[in-house]
Design goal:
By secondary structure, this protein is mainly α. It has one domain.
């Protein structure tokens, strides 16, 4: 004889299966989840192919340069593109907003370019959702719709009193309801698991991180199912439960994730792009003009070089003085760039830490933090790409400056050229995205677990309240 809990769970599932509205809502959500997964995989494949093609074209143009002056090559520059992991198709994270390419050139540190404009509009994100968006924002609505009347509707129909008259304890009743609706919630993970398998393509690391996505999203969905059952048990009418749950969805899924970044920005304000560029320009002006070998800012450097070579005039140097000034200027400018980049990235990390703190009150932030980190599309991944690109830019420019120093005579400097084999031999940009910072993810995991344990802890109390209602 089946246990009462399993019997109640089967009855609840049969009831859901006979409801056209429930079937339509569940079917629509599953189809949307599958469609978003397939569309995201296709778009990710197209984007990866486009990035590879553009990177190859940038390298072709770099290598196609003729013999020329090294400083001309410095200003010719080249593009580098951020490599994304396969799970970016599941959750594009911040990459749709930060851009995915950088133009590397001398004397400048450019910001990322070519963010996907379609992702900058909330309305368009609704038009082409990703699997992460469907599970984070839309799936909770389905679970609320399916479970808001699970107990309250039976109370209104009088069947709850009948169950209690048959000796079914409140805890058993709620356990059966939770088992049924929890199964529905976990069933929504099947399309996600399929999408992860297709996206990973057999890559062990991606499969491992994707496997960790499943319990994170599972905890999120189970928390909504259990919370909906709890509201249905505690509130007298199904309508009251529905309105309460919709209010919670608006607050936790829509409002809080948008207010929290505003609070983080207010606590750790960032200057406007214009103000930031002006601050960098002001510091660069103190360095001097590396294009001008006679710039007085390089007077102390001139004295050191002359003393090092035991001469009294740059004309007597065995190397190109203009190239030395370019190299020293790039070194000093690089320090300015890195100082401002470090300050900006520290501010971004402080803002992210504020969001991590807010995740204890808004579990959607905790889920997003985990999901983006596992997909490799979070802030640390973007910052690592920017730093790697700057290191490559600096090494490239200084290698060309070294050619200027040793291969170009000071007389008729700008009229001379060096062989193109020098930049053909320069290494291409390679960047391996960093893995998740596991200790940094513990607060987000803890916040998500807390929001799952909260309804689990309250359901037995709601069951005892149902028992008191039956005795009243």
């Amino acid at each position: 004889m089946p246990s009462p809990t399993l019997a109640i769970a089967r009855h609840e599932l049969r009831t859901l299966s006979r409801s056209r509205g429930a079937l339509a809502a569940a079917g629509t959500t599953l189809l949307l989840l599958l469609a978003s997964a397939l569309a995201s995989l296709d778009l990710a494949a197209q984007a990866a192919e486009s990035r590879a093609r553009q990177q190859a074209e940038a390298e072709r143009q770099w290598q196609a340069q003729p013999d020329r002056h090294p400083h001309r090559v410095i200003h010719f520059g080249t593009f580098v593109f951020q490599p994304l992991g396969p799970l970016a198709a599941i959750d594009p994270g911040i990459t749709a907003h930060t851009g995915h390419s950088l133009f590397l050139e001398g004397h400048r540190q450019n910001s990322a370019n070519f963010a996907e404009a379609r992702q900058s509009s909330v309305l368009l994100r609704f038009g082409l959702p990703t699997p992460a968006f469907v599970l984070q924002a839309l799936a909770p609505l389905l679970l609320v719709f399916l479970a808001f009347g699970s107990v309250a509707a039976e109370r209104e129909r009088g069947t709850l009193a009948l169950l209690r008259a048959q000796g079914v304890p409140g805890r058993t009743l709620l356990a059966g309801k939770a088992l049924a609706h929890g199964g529905v919630a976990l069933a929504l993970l099947l399309p996600l698991a399929l999408a992860i398998l297709l996206a990973a393509g057999g890559e062990a690391g991606a499969l491992a991180r994707g496997a960790l996505m499943l319990p994170a999203y599972g905890a999120w969905l189970l928390a909504w199912s259990l919370g909906a059952i709890l509201a249905s048990a505690l509130l007298p009418r199904a309508r009251d439960a529905l309105l309460t749950l919709l209010g919670a969805w608006i607050l936790l899924v829509v409002v809080a994730p948008r207010l929290a970044p505003l609070a983080a920005e207010a606590l750790h304000p960032a200057p406007s792009r214009l103000a930031a560029e002006l601050a960098v320009a002001a510091d660069l002006a103190k360095v001097g003009d590396p294009h001008d070998p006679n710039d007085p800012n390089f007077g102390p450097f001139r004295a050191r070089v002359l003393a090092q070579h035991g001469v009294t005039d740059v004309e007597a140097l065995p190397v190109n003085w203009g190239g030395l000034v370019s190299m020293e200027g790039e070194r000093l400018q690089g320090e300015v760039f890195r100082r401002h980049m470090d300050a900006a990235q520290a501010r971004e990390r402080a803002q992210a830490a504020t969001l991590d703190g807010a995740a204890w009150l808004a579990p959607a932030l905790a889920l997003r933090r985990l999901s983006m980190a596992l997909a490799g599309t979070d802030l640390p991944g973007h910052q690592a790409f920017v730093r790697a690109a700057e290191e490559h830019r600096y090494a490239m420019v200084q290698a060309l400056n070294a050619l200027h120093v040793h291969k170009i005579r000071r007389q008729d400097d700008r009229a001379q050229r060096v062989g193109r084999e020098h930049w053909l031999a320069m290494p291409a940009f390679h960047h391996a995205p960093p893995g998740p910072d596991w200790p940094a993810l513990l607060p987000a995991a803890g916040a998500l677990l807390l929001w799952l344990l909260l309804p689990l802890a309250l359901l037995p109390l709601a069951g005892r309240r149902l028992d008191r209602e039956a005795r009243a």
